[in-house]
Specification:
The protein is an alpha+beta fold. It contains 3 helices and 6 strands. It has a 3-stranded antiparallel beta sheet, with no helix packed on it. A 3-stranded mixed beta sheet has the order 4-5-6, with helices on one face. The radius of gyration is 17 Å and the shape is globular.
Length: 146
C-alpha cells in the first residue's frame, strides 16, 4: 500500500537524547521528560516515562477525538465520562527484532455494546494513528465492561 499524501496542518517536534535512558523535549518545551528503560526490559525503571507510554498517550487521545467525531456525525453526543485506554506492548518478533502491539479499550458507559463497538470500528477508520499503524502492528479494539 502506498503512503498517504497529506496537506500539512501542524507539525510537532521533539528531540530525544540518551535513547531509552535519556530525556525527551518538545521544541516548545511543554514536554521535558526523563526517560527510563522499564525494569521488564532490563532497565532500572524509576520515576520516568518511556516511548511506549508516550505512544499510548498520543494514540489514546487521538483515537478518542476520532471517536467523538464519528459519534457526532452519527448524532450521538459523548459525555466527559467517555474515554480510551491504550495499552502498548513491546515484544520480540519472529525474526529476533522488536515490534509493537496495541489494544484500544473504549470506555463508553450507557451506550449499548453493539453501538459502542460500531463507534470504535468507525473511529479506527478515521484516526490518523490507526491509519499510520494499519497493516504494520496488531491493533485490537475492545469495549470496557459496564
Amino acid at each position: 500500500m502506498a503512503p498517504v499524501t497529506i496537506s500539512p496542518l501542524y507539525t510537532a517536534h521533539a528531540t530525544a537524547h540518551g535513547g531509552r535512558s535519556g530525556k525527551v523535549q518538545s521544541s516548545d518545551q511543554v514536554i521535558d521528560l526523563p526517560l527510563a528503560m522499564p525494569k521488564e526490559l532490563g532497565g532500572a525503571g524509576g520515576v520516568a516515562t518511556n516511548p511506549e507510554q508516550l505512544f499510548a498517550a498520543g494514540y489514546s487521545s487521538c483515537f478518542e477525538s476520532a471517536l467523538r467525531l464519528v459519534a457526532g456525525k452519527a448524532g450521538r453526543k459523548l459525555g466527559p465520562e467517555v474515554g480510551i485506554t491504550a495499552s502498548v506492548t513491546i515484544g520480540k518478533t519472529p525474526d529476533g527484532g522488536f515490534g509493537l502491539a496495541v489494544e484500544l479499550k473504549g470506555i463508553l458507559p450507557g451506550i449499548p455494546r453493539d453501538e459502542a463497538e460500531k463507534l470504535m470500528h468507525a473511529a479506527h477508520e478515521v484516526c490518523p494513528y490507526s491509519r499510520a499503524t494499519r497493516g504494520n502492528i496488531d491493533v485490537k479494539l475492545s469495549v470496557a465492561e459496564q
